[in-house]
Specification:
With about 240 residues, the protein is α/β, with parallel strands linked by helices. The chain is about 35% helix and about 30% strand. It is globular, with a radius of gyration of 17 Å.
Length: about 240
């Protein structure tokens, strides 16, 4: 595949994100499970990034996001791409959470995190683009830092699955990272490769990334229903929609 770099961490896609790319990205996240939270905590490979962002501001943004997530949802809630359970622990305080991820290692980390905080959830290994649930099973849906890795071509599959799983009138919250530079803001909503490295030195070139603004995130999820709320908090963005 021909690719064109436009910065150290950005490689432009000049062909559609392929099945091979998808497999490579899934493998990366499975292997990253035990070190993923370093990004939230600003340590390890992300220590320099944290200093550049401003640790105090980053932590303040995470606290504000946690308050929003903790106040979201009720009843049966599906969390798509739960990752390490960073957000699951807030959701599980007021909802019956079904935590879904394709990565067995991510699910293991989430399970341990909730157990350590005496919280409960159901854990399901499943493909976000082929959710295995009966129609109308959930009152709410949450996605944390997942939409920025959803290829445009696969959005209809994701949307259809959420639409089937949710009850009419159910709420959807999505939070994600926003553009980190003026160049990223100009390219908001577009796909690119964001190469990543793990602690063992392994390199993953085919990690898809989409920098979202509140507007592009709301537009991507618009087929689900009406936007109730949207916001930007530090380096993060978020939306809440009501399924119709």
């Amino acid at each position: 595949m021909s690719r064109k770099p436009f910065s150290q961490h950005h490689i432009e896609l000049v062909a559609p994100f392929s099945e091979a790319d998808d497999r490579a990205m899934r493998a990366y996240y499975d292997r990253r499970a035990t070190e993923y939270d370093d990004w939230y905590l600003g340590r390890g490979l992300y220590a320099e990034y944290a200093r550049r962002e401003g640790r105090a501001q980053w932590n303040a943004s995470l606290r504000e996001l946690a308050e929003r997530v903790a106040a979201f949802g009720s009843g049966n809630l599906i969390e798509i791409a739960c990752g390490t359970g960073w957000w699951s622990r807030y959701l599980a305080r007021r909802s019956r959470v079904t935590a879904v991820d394709f990565s067995p290692r991510m699910l293991d980390v989430t399970r341990e995190r909730l157990r350590a905080e005496s919280l409960k959830a159901e854990f399901v290994r499943a493909d976000a683009y082929a959710l295995p649930f009966r129609g109308g099973s959930f009152d709410a849906c949450f996605m944390g830092c997942f939409m920025s890795h959803v290829p445009h071509a696969r959005l209809p599959e994701l949307i259809d699955g959420i639409r089937r799983a949710l009850k009419s009138g159910g709420l959807v919250m999505a939070i994600d990272t926003g553009p980190g530079s003026e160049e990223s803001r100009r390219r908001a909503g577009t796909e690119y490769y964001n190469p990543r490295t793990l602690k063992d030195g392994s390199r993953y070139e085919r990690v898809l990334k989409i920098d979202h603004t509140p507007e592009t995130l709301a537009n991507a999820l618009a087929p689900l229903g009406r936007t109730v709320e949207s916001w930007s908090i530090g380096s993060f963005v978020g939306v809440i929609l009501r399924h119709s």
